[in-house]
Amino acid sequence: MSAISLILLFGSVSSVEDHGYSVELGIKGLKAFLPSKNAEAFIKTCNCGSPLSVGQPLWCVTQFKDKFKCTEGENHVLTVTIDPLAVQSSALTDTSNLNCFLPGMNFKGLIQSVFDGGLVVNVLTFPGHVHITHLWKHPKLFSVGQQVSLKLLYIDVNTKTLHLTALPKHVQFDGRPVKVFGDLQISTICEAKVAWTQKKKGVMFHLPNNITGFAAMSQLSDVNKESAKLQKYTPNSTHKCRILGFNFMDGLALITLKKRILQMKFIQINEISVGELLEVIVKDVTANGILVKLAKSIFSFITCLHLADVPIKKPEKKFTPGMKLKCRVLGVDVEKNKVFLTHKQSLVKLKDPVTEYSQLRPQMELEGYISAIKERVLIVTFFNNVKGYVTLKDMSKEKVESPDSLFYVGQVIRCRVVFFNAVEKKLKLSFNFGDEPVTSPRKCLEPLDISIRKINEAVILSVDSIGYTLGIQNKRKAFLPFYHLSDFHEVQELRKMSFKPGHKLQGLTFFKQKEKLILTMKESFVSAADTNNLLETFEDLKNGMFLPAVIKNHQDYGMFLEIVNGYTGLCPFKTLSYIQPSNLQELFKPGQSVMTRLVKIDTEKQTFLGSVNIKECCESGVDSSLSTLRSYLLSRTKAHLQLFNEQDELAVYNDLKVGDFVEVVVNSVLKKGILCDTITGAKGLVTKDHFGDLQPKVGKCYQGVILFIDLLTPCIEVTLDSKVVQAVKSFKETDKTKLKTNQILKANILLMKPEFMLMGLKGHGSGKFVYVPVKQNLNDVNLKPFKIGSYTEVVIKDYIEGLQLAVFKMHDLKVTPDKYHQAETNQSNLMDIVEEANVMPPRKVRKRTTTEVKKPKKVLKKSENIHTIENNENVSDNECLKSLQGNVPRLTIEVFSWKGEVIPHQKYPHRQESDDEMETTKSESLEMKNRKHAEELKLQEHELDQLKDITHVQSSSDFEKLVLQSPNSSVVWIAYMTYHVELGELEKARLVAERAINTISFREEQEKINVWMAYLNMETIYGDPTDVKKLLHRAVSCNNPLDINLKMCNIYVANGKTFEVEELFTFLCHDLKHEKLVWKSYAHFLFKSGQVDIARSVLHHALLDLDKRDHVEVIIKFATLEFSHGDIERGCTIFENLIASYLGRTDLWSVYVDMMVKSGDIAGAR
């Protein structure tokens, strides 16, 4: 007998049986059984293959073989099915009893009549009503007699009328959970199209993703008089709205069109961000604090503790209802519907408050308030309930007996991070900064035994998060911090990997003794100890001494250095003028080794002023650079041997060395190179610079030569260049191929590392590699890039541990020809003349003013092969660019165009300007423009090459691989974002952008800025204006505000958002009014957009706000804009007035003439 489907019921699993499930229907005296076979389709399609669980809710369709027994009440157990198709198609077809109808049942109904409010239908002889909100289209589009599919909502018992729905999401429901409103959320602002209007009720709208919205009459305008104005809401007209809530049964999003609500920053507490700056209104003042209003129905109570930096006892004297205050959000409790604010000005004015433990960094300085004082600790609280503790010894440099006597609850205080664990939410803080107290604390320390300065041997007793505890002679304990393991970061990390408790260490020396004895393994200090150059007392310090030091910390004005015995001194940043100020803290980090020259000594305070300027701390010659490289290579070799003994998994790298011939199999090809494996199992890397003529393919085997062994990764760096491979294969050690000290050979650069440069020799040394130093000493941090594959001459030097050292020929004064001597004496930094061998990439050309050079006249013989110009007064750089005929070695710098003919030296008076000179100047200017254009084209080609590999990516998993391989590449991250945007997955694109910002190293500033700009551009195109402003606020707080805001202006302009551009420029002209670039950019925008009159008024405001030294440059900008986008006559007038005020400024004449020529007025230019 075939089963008969009858009723759709709702139940839940009550128990799991052997052959199915018991289902509770909620009907007294009636149970249901769900056979396993009837649940298979649902489990497979809707339950991810997992069996049903007790308590799981289900839509069930009844099945029984004998309908008569069921109706007579003989069957008390029903058989049900949850097959999605059965649930969707179930319908009651025959009944005469209204009690058989249950909500959720499906029916077929006939339309009896149509009216504005909905439909009247007939269902199985019973009358029914379908409201307009439960129709997928307007009632007028239905016809009498039409059959429609319906689902029962409820029964009106009084009128015995069925109330039904015809919405597809209800009628076609198959038991699976559905997301009714997609990605829409409360408070979302979107565009809505009018569907139809209902008199005295409201307007129905079509929202994105086929969602219907409803705006009641009271939500159409801020003034509730819209009943007579419904005619303006014509079908398909577009309006901006904001979502207030959802009606899930009716499938309606409840929206508002009120401008006041649209302009609100938030309408729910969960939209408020911790650390956000808000403007609030005081509603009430009490003895315990004040009640403030954040938005409609959102209030907060600020206690007296947070009304000011110092707690206020009587708030009614300072605050009155109606006052507007600026507060910062301390925390948000969504569950309790509470917002916590602070009005402490020190916290309100913070630029980048810490709101998560993950934002903390070691030694970070931050501000918080004391929330509790215990007997031995203080509790300091920050935003979002981030808390830390301060122990007695960290409260002051002096001994603290009672914290109550020095601190009070609510006190705003600056502190330093000592230790933190973001996972366990632990944070230890300190109130001590900078140097140790200098009020004779050293006299309190026990005398240090001189014999302990040279530590023969130490044993590692234990290890913690910052270093090793050691046991030394006489059963004393000492401490070895991680940053004291080596002068070199790579060696430091290798030693951290190999050192374990129980290991014996050698090569240590005394550093200082404070609360405990601190030792160091830094090579510079050990070398000083070996030569007895360690200081016994402060009186041993002399001006001009050259000592090793460790960077202790940074301040805005300089960095503190620490030398042996714990003596500290200051190195002002102004002595490092050759380094960009923004890079100083990146190049010189706490714990880093430097060499310092003592400039000034303060015996009374026992402090000193030191300099780490490379020109003051480096002696002439190559001894210093060779010594630094020698120290690095010896330490690195020893660290490798220690690591091989400790970690068996690195055994495959033990037998490998630089210069070995290997065969590799390609695993994957990336945009920057390939990943490969050797036959022995070692991982390998080959960059594109080392492909040679090959085009490697996955799975193929190639021959290569090892250039570098990296045990930190671990992997080896290999070259596949056939010239290098062939040279190594054909090399044979003979008397002729032996290298001799001070021998000069040609070599090309194969590899660049922070501490050295690996070069391949040519000539009879072909097949051998040499290590060339790239640093003059430890202070040489601002390294210049070298070009892989460039050739130069090197001088062979030492041979240590199987490694051959060499130096650039022009650096070795013992073998440098006379032609380099003059350049060397005029430039203390020898690295500046490496361009002789075309090692350096071309420098950008900058125009410089002519400088007077006064030197005694000197005439050289032609046999000296040096072109020297007779030294005269007022000789410009361009006049010195003449060369002798013949094959003369010359500096190969792209700034100049060298020619072979002999040009006699001529004297030109300053005021004489011939046509030839003008033609030369024009040709040089044109050549510079062409070169700059060529460089830009090369840059574009490079960026397109980077994108070629990304175009083959077809899935998210492929992008995940790419971002793992190149985590700091903005090109990859932006392509990943674009991939999601093209699929319409904006939320995923946002997540990728956030990941990129958190993943890219803080050293890669430009890469991060690229991601920020792409993120802002995406939000500008697809996001809401409020979200764009929030994101811009974040970007500005993390980067240079001027750069980010100006780039944002360009994004707005590119997307045609004129109003937003003007709003942002108005803000910039107020907040950054002293920046000339802001005014120039604003003027350019106004002129280009045709707002010439407004632009001219902006000039007046700019001159009032800018420094006088910037006036000329800004006036020139406005004048040039008048020529290109405004009135040429007005531009001429501005130039005439400007030149009359600055008659001696020839550069103004040049700009004026150039603008006249561009405008076509050649006669006027003459």
TrEMBL record:
GO biological process, one term: rRNA processing
Domain S1 motif span(s) in chain numbering: 104-167, 275-344, 363-432, 544-613
Cellular-component GO terms for this entry: small-subunit processome
Subcellular location: Nucleus, Nucleolus
Top-rank taxon, per record: Eukaryota
PANTHER family: PROGRAMMED CELL DEATH PROTEIN 11 PRE-RRNA PROCESSING PROTEIN RRP5, PROTEIN RRP5 HOMOLOG
Protein name, per record: Protein RRP5 homolog
